[in-house]
Amino acid sequence: MIGKCLFPVAGSGTRFLPATKSMPKEMLPIVNKPLVQYGVEEAIEAGMTNCALVTGRGKRAIADHFDISYELEHQIAGSSKEDYLSGIRDVIDRGVFTMVRQRAMLGLGHAILTGEPLIGDQPFGVVLSDDLCLNPDGPSVLAQMAALYEEYQCSIVAVQEVSKEEVDQYGVVAGTTERDGLTRVSEMVEKPSPEAAPSNLAVIGRYILTPDIFDIIRNTPPGKNGEVQLTDALQTQAQEGRVLAYQFKGLRFDCGSVPGFVDATQYVFDHYYGQPE
Ligand code: UTP
After folding, report:
1. How far is the CA of 247 from the CAs of 35, 80, 101, 199, in angstroms?
2. Hey, where are the domains in the chain?
3. Mutation test residue for ligand 1: of 130, 169, 191, the one with most atoms within 8 Å of CB
4. If you ran DSSP here, which 8-state letter would residue 166 be given?
5. Which helix (H) or strand (E) holds 34?
6. C-alpha closest to that of 258 among 130, 107, 129, 108
7. 165-211, pLDDT tens digit by residue?
8. Burial class (CB in 10 A: 0-12, 13-18, 19+), 217
9. How far apart (Å, rounded) are the C-alpha atoms in residues 125 and 34?
10. pLDDT digits over 69-103, tens only?
11. CB-ligand 1 contact for 131 (6 Å cutoff)
């Protein structure tokens, strides 16, 4: 079983300035819960209770969020307001949180390599918490992928179909059908132009990676935008037939963009707010 999950949370979140000037974008709340907490809850549900956060400058609030706040606890102890803290208390009780800092933002591939000391030589999940994934009718997206890993024992990327005009915002995959909703990837391209895209299957922020990815990233030169791209490293595994693309069951909101963030807020308010956890 996969026990660890990596959270690259070092990005600058420029699309949310000025909100993200002194606050990490992963702490932006969808209704009353920060984005990163949704991601951590998803990982814990998938059995990945060991949460490794790759943070950066100005991201201390994330570390504080997954720790007890004694002053606050003391202040509201015994009052009805304690209920507001029960969700995060449960997360803190069930999870183990480790952190490492990415000193320079050199790309997602580099962020993942920075997390190597926290992961070690074992398969692991990756959650980009600005992608909010919800599956109200069944297991979380990461839990679906963890079950698939038990069967296939190789790297898995979550994908969804996007319009031709949107492919240049994503890593895009192509390959052969393994079974319904599952593609054995042979080609991966980071942010291709619509003309150059091999398909409209876009990678979203959920991955299961095998630990050889670290050595591959070490040997991957900077790619698109001068950043070390995870997509380029995964392409090396894909050429050996060791990457699956999984069309997950559930919803995904791109909360790294303002429209996606607003859609997610509306959805969570309509479907979850005020419901028992
Ligand atoms: P994004 O491409 O969304 O970049 O990163 P960003 O900086 O967070 O946001 P914008 O584009 O400036 O608004 C995708 C994911 O990879 C992480 C980010 O935190 C985000 O979860 N990341 C990216 C890192 O942790 N380190 C990096 O060097 C780059």
Report:
1. 22, 42, 32, 14
2. 4-273
3. 130
4. G
5. strand 33-34
6. 130
7. 999 999 999 999 999 999 999 999 999 999 999 999 999 999 999 99
8. buried
9. 20
10. 888 888 888 888 888 888 898 999 999 999 999 99
11. no
- pLDDT band per the 50, 70, 90 thresholds, residue 17: very high
Q: Which of 20, 36, 128 to mutate to test the pocket of ligand 1 (most atoms within 8 A of CB)?
A: 128
Question: What pLDDT is stored for residue 57 in this prediction?
Answer: 86
Q: How confident is the model at residue 267 (pLDDT cuts 50, 70, 90)?
A: very high
Tokens of 62: 């994330």
The pTM assigned to this predicted structure is 0.95
Q: Measured between alpha carbons, how far is 135 from 52 in angstroms, rounded to an integer?
A: 23
Residue 142 CB partners (closer than 8 Å, separation 6+): 5, 42, 43, 45, 46, 48, 125, 127, 133, 206
Query: For 216, which DSSP code?
Result: H
Closest residue by CA, ligand 1 atom 2: 11
Ligand 1: atom nearest CA of 12 is 7
- The percent of the chain in helix, strand and coil, each rounded to the nearest 5, is 40, 25, 35
Q: Which atom of ligand 1 is nearest to the CA of 56?
A: 25
**Distance of CA 10 from the midpoint of ligand 1 (Å):** 7
Task: Determine the Cα–Cα distance for residues 136 and 167; give it in Å rounded to an integer.
Answer: 27
CA 128 to ligand 1 center in whole angstroms: 8
Whole-angstrom Cα distance, residue 82 to residue 78?
A: 7
Give the residues across from 155 on adjacent strands. Answer: 243
- CATH architecture assignment, domain 4-273: Alpha-Beta Complex (3.90)
Estimate to the nearest angstrom the gap between the alpha carbon of 59 and the chain centroid.
17
Half-sphere exposure of 24 (CA within 13 A, CB side): 25
